[in-house]
């Protein structure tokens, strides 16, 4: 069954079940429904991959910041206001001409929430988790990315509580761009390692 | 004791193609954001820790048939029922029918930003020197775990080298069983693709895991 089929057949039942759970747990005093609204709002409107894009754009623009980010990503990222849940222990991984980094959590769905928000479906799904550690080039092809044969591919399986952010390579022809313009070239997938930053004619938004 | 994680899928065949998605598509049904919020809010009560929740999810027998948030809800309901905090007839009745055992705290609306911004560090004070140093060769242990663990099957009994020493962190193996945090040194251990998958693997492939000290032996 595809994910979509699953979605449609289960929608009614799951909708009722989750509503019932919420009602009962609120009645028991375990949850504050307004807190749920705030949690959801946080990830729908405030915390997402645009945060990470600003980190990358700063690293591209400021050599001192880049150095700090590579040495102590948790502090460097916190200095831009991004910290907390599922980003307590950050490590930044810089892509270069000779090395391409990719991040996965084969055991579950560990992901750097403060800089990337909630993970996309494919990141949490078994096809990506099972294959990327064994056949990363095959996985990249499904994202439309082909790298030179001599590029070393390094896959980081985030099996503990360290969270990884990939710093994609800065595209050619971006010398005059300010940080905001640079950030618009940084896609979510490029910060996981399944994509590349966009060429200046296009943008991530 | 038999313990099976259905979530440990690294290197397994036959899961099919990946479906890339545009940025911003976070949820796929109206109940999914509520399921996410419910799970996070219940986690914040302190009735269980995150490793217990992960264990509850990965051991669901129908794990691979369920969607991501279905897994979360199924595990949430199991954890609540196991602690007498919820009874299945209450879900059917859509109201509380039994007294509620107390929880350490309730996450209030006004606290959400502060609690999220603070997070929950797993790093703990150093009690003993690290056994291994950067560049050292190590071998992962090859055992059948009877509990939640962070040593994936594909990386058991493999030789690699210590690339980073990541400090001392809560050990999920014990924390998930309610046996305390038992903090341990954590290392990034990198393996050659050939060591993990044999000859003919992607040239130039290196894969790392973050491994707690008890998972490692000196070579």
| Inertia-based shape of chain A | globular
According to CATH, the homologous superfamily of the largest domain in chain A is Nitrile hydratase alpha /Thiocyanate hydrolase gamma
Number of individual domains of chain B: 2
User: Which stretches of chain B are low in confidence, meaning pLDDT under 50 for 5 or more residues running?
Assistant: none
Mean pLDDT of chain A: 93
Helix content of chain B: 25-40%
Report how far apart the termini of chain A are.
Answer: 32 Å
What keywords describe this structure?
heterodimer; A: 205 residues; mainly alpha; Nitrile Hydratase, Chain A; two-stranded parallel sheet; two-stranded parallel ribbon; 11% strand; disordered N terminus; B: 219 residues; alpha+beta; Cyclin A, domain 1; SH3 type barrels; five-stranded antiparallel sheet
Q: Would you give an account of this structure?
A:
By secondary structure, chain A is mainly alpha-helical. Chain A has two domains: 3-44; 49-192, Nitrile hydratase alpha /Thiocyanate hydrolase gamma (Nitrile Hydratase, Chain A), CATH 3.90.330.10. Chain A is built from eleven helices and four strands; from the N terminus they run H-H-H-H-H-E-E-H-H-H-H-E-E-H-H. Chain A has helices spanning 3-27, 33-46, 49-61, 63-71, 73-78, 113-116, 121-124, 126-131, 136-142, 179-183, 188-192; strands at residues 90-94, 99-104, 152-157, 163-167. In chain A, strands 1-4 form a two-stranded parallel sheet. Chain B has 219 residues and is α+β, with helices and mostly antiparallel strands. Chain B folds into two domains: 31-118, Cyclin A, domain 1 (Orthogonal Bundle), CATH 1.10.472; 137-218, SH3 type barrels. Chain B has helices at 31-43, 50-58, 68-82, 88-93, 112-118, 172-175, 193-197; strands spanning 137-140, 159-169, 184-192, 205-212, 216-218. Chain B is globular and about 60 Å long. The two termini of chain B are 30 Å apart. The chains are: A mainly alpha (205), B alpha+beta (219). At the A-B interface, helix 1, helix 2, helix 7, helix 8 and helix 9 of A face helix 1, helix 2, helix 3, helix 4 and helix 5 of B. Strand 3 of chain A pairs parallel with strand 4 of chain B.
């Amino acid at each position: 069954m595809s994910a979509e089929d699953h979605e449609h057949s289960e929608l009614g039942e799951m909708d009722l079940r989750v509503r019932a759970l919420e009602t009962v747990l609120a009645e028991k005093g375990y949850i504050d429904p307004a807190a749920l609204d705030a949690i959801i709002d946080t990830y729908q409107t405030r915390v997402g991959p645009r945060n990470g894009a600003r980190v990358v754009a700063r690293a591209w623009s400021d050599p001192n910041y880049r150095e700090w980010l590579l040495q102590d990503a948790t502090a460097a990222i916190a200095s831009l206001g991004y910290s907390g849940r599922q980003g307590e222990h950050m490590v930044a991984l810089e892509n270069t001409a000779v090395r391409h980094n990719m991040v996965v959590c084969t055991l579950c769905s560990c992901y750097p929430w403060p800089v990337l928000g909630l993970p996309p479906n494919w990141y949490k799904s078994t096809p990506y988790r099972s294959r990327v550690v064994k056949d990363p080039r095959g996985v990249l092809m499904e994202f439309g990315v082909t790298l030179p044969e001599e590029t070393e591919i390094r896959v980081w399986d985030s099996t503990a509580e360290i969270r990884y952010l990939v710093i994609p390579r800065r595209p050619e022809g971006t010398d005059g761009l300010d940080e905001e313009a640079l950030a618009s070239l940084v896609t979510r997938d490029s910060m996981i390692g399944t994509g590349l930053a966009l060429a200046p004619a296009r943008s991530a938004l | 004791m038999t313990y099976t994680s259905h979530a440990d899928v690294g290197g397994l065949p036959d899961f099919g193609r990946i479906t890339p998605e545009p940025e911003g598509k976070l949820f796929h049904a109206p109940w999914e954001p509520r399921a996410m919020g419910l799970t996070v809010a219940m986690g914040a009560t302190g009735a269980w820790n995150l490793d217990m929740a992960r264990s509850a999810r990965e051991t669901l027998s129908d794990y691979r048939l369920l969607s991501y948030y279905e897994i979360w809800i199924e595990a949430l309901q199991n954890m609540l029922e196991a602690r007498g905090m919820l009874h299945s007839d209450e879900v059917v009745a859509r109201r509380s029918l039994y007294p509620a055992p107390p929880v350490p705290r309730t996450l209030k609306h006004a606290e959400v930003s502060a609690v999220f911004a603070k997070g929950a560090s797993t790093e703990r004070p150093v009690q003993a020197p690290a056994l291994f140093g950067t560049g050292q060769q190590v071998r992962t242990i090859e055992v059948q775990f009877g509990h939640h663990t962070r040593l994936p099957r594909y990386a058991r009994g493999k030789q690699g080298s210590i690339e980073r020493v990541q400090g001392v962190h809560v050990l999920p193996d014990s924390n998930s069983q309610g046996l305390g945090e038992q903090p341990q040194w954590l290392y990034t251990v990198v393996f050659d693709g050939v060591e993990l998958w044999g000859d003919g693997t992607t040239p130039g492939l290196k894969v790392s895991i973050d491994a707690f000290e008890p998972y490692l032996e000196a070579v």
